[in-house]
C-alpha cells in the first residue's frame, strides 16, 4: 500500500514531468524568442521545482532537504531573471515580437508549400500567383 508521503512524492513528480513537457513543447511550437523565453522561464521553473520538492520530501533527511530547498529558492530567483535578461537583450538588439499580422493566412501549419497553393518545385517557396511568402 502506498503511504501518504509516497503519494505526495508521486503527485509532485508527475506535476514536474507535466510542466517540463509543457516547457519543451512551448520551446518547439511557439513562434518567437519572447514567447519561448516565457515558456521556458515559467513552465520549466515550475517543473524543476516540483521535481526537487518531491526529492526533498522523499529524502527526508535534514541536510539533504535543506540543500534541495535552497536549490528551489535559487531556481525561483535565477530562471525568471535569466529569461528577463535574454528578452531585454533581444529588445535592445531590435528583435520585434511576433504578432498575428506576421502569420501567413495561406500558409499551412506544417510548412508544406503544396498545401498553400505554392509550387512544391519552387525552391524559394513563392506563392503560385507570384507574391512573396512571409
Report the average pLDDT across residues.
82
Number of helix segments? 3
What Rg is obtained from the alpha carbons, in whole angstroms? 22 Å
Biggest sheet architecture:
none
Q: Provide the domain count.
A: 2
Sequence of secondary-structure elements = HHH
Q: Into which percent range does the helicity of residues fall?
A: 55-70%
Summarize this, please?
Residues 97-134 are annotated as: Disordered. Helix content is 63%, strand content 0%.
Written description of the protein model:
This protein is mainly alpha-helical and 134 residues long. It folds into two domains: 4-100; 104-134, no CATH class. Helix content is 63%, strand content 0%. It contains three helices and no strands. The chain has helices spanning 4-29, 33-59, 62-92. Helix 1 (4-29) packs antiparallel against helix 2 (33-59) and helix 2 packs antiparallel against helix 3 (62-92). The model has no long low-confidence stretch (mean pLDDT 82). Keywords: Membrane, Transmembrane, Transmembrane helix. This is Na+/H+ antiporter subunit G. Residues 125-134 have a biased composition (Low complexity). Residues 99-124 have a biased composition (Acidic residues). Residues 97-134 are annotated as: Disordered.
What are the key terms here?
134 residues; 2 domains; 63% helix; transmembrane; transmembrane helix
What's the helix and strand layout?
Layout: H1 4-29, H2 33-59, H3 62-92
Amino acid at each position: 500500500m502506498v503511504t501518504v508521503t509516497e503519494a505526495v512524492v508521486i503527485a509532485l513528480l508527475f506535476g514536474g514531468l507535466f510542466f517540463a513537457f509543457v516547457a519543451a513543447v512551448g520551446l518547439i511550437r511557439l513562434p518567437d524568442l519572447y514567447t519561448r523565453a516565457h515558456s521556458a522561464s515559467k513552465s520549466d521553473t515550475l517543473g524543476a521545482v516540483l521535481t526537487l520538492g518531491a526529492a526533498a520530501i522523499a529524502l527526508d533527511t535534514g541536510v539533504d532537504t535543506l540543500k534541495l530547498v535552497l536549490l528551489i529558492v535559487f531556481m525561483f530567483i535565477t530562471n525568471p531573471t535569466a529569461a528577463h535578461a535574454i528578452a531585454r537583450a533581444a529588445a535592445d538588439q531590435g528583435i520585434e515580437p511576433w504578432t498575428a499580422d506576421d502569420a501567413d493566412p495561406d500558409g499551412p501549419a506544417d510548412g508544406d508549400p503544396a498545401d498553400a497553393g505554392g509550387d512544391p518545385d519552387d525552391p524559394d517557396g513563392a506563392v503560385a500567383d507570384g507574391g512573396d511568402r512571409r
